[in-house]
Amino acid sequence: MDIATAIERSERYLTEAKGQTFVRGMTLCTDKNRPGVVVAMIRFDSYEDAQKNNELEVTKKSGSDWPENLEIKFTDLNVVREISALS
Fold it and tell me: 45, 55, 48, 70: which is closest to 17 by C-alpha?
């Protein structure tokens, strides 16, 4: 999938899910070493909110809109600390 499509579909989801989603933010990246690979980091307040978000009808509908050949991998990460170079 190309980054433009990923951006468009992610923005569409956030618009359609407004007021329903538990998503607090998204960061979309491309992998410089693997052309065509898009990495999405999606932020939630908690693991529980992420699980609730997966059960929303708007999330399920959005997921079915992505290409069938799209490989999606989920990883659960705990944020230990965010460090800003600007602080």
Answer: 55
